[in-house]
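Dear colleagues,

As part of the handover before I leave the project, I'm documenting each prediction I ran so the next person doesn't have to rerun anything. This entry is a single chain, and its sequence is reproduced below.
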Amino acid sequence: LLLLRLHNILIFIYFSMKLSRTLAFGVMLWISIFVLYSILLSLPFLGGRDVLLHVVFWILLIPIVIGLTKWYFKAGEPRISRGLVLGLSSIVIGVLLDVLITVPFFLVPQTQGGTFADGALLLFGDWKLYIGFVEVILLCLWAGFEFDKTFSRAK
């Protein structure tokens, strides 16, 4: 009975560490995206060129996601399924942070007296956001696959 409890405690610690690492990945990705997007918005040659801004953003997002996935998979064996879960988890974490921070503090003021729903519509009503979601998921999937080949070969 004591051995079973110890086993359960070790499993809980293992999953807690994975969860905390996944949360850290999602938060670091969100912060990186927030900073990158803010910098791109401030560049005068991208002003008023929304699609060009996003194309540059999507290109610069690639090394950010790959670097963070490399950090993430250092702590555990990479797999395609883990890449998928990581990608989906980071999207959920990012959406939550957007709802808690981006919409009320940055987008609602842009609506000039609008409501939270108006600010949320500015963000979540833009098709370019969903291209970024797909990109993050695909890059995490690719990292799980590619790093798995490297990880497996090293053994």
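The first helix runs from residue 2 to 42. The two ends are 36 Å apart (CA to CA).

All the best with the project,
I.
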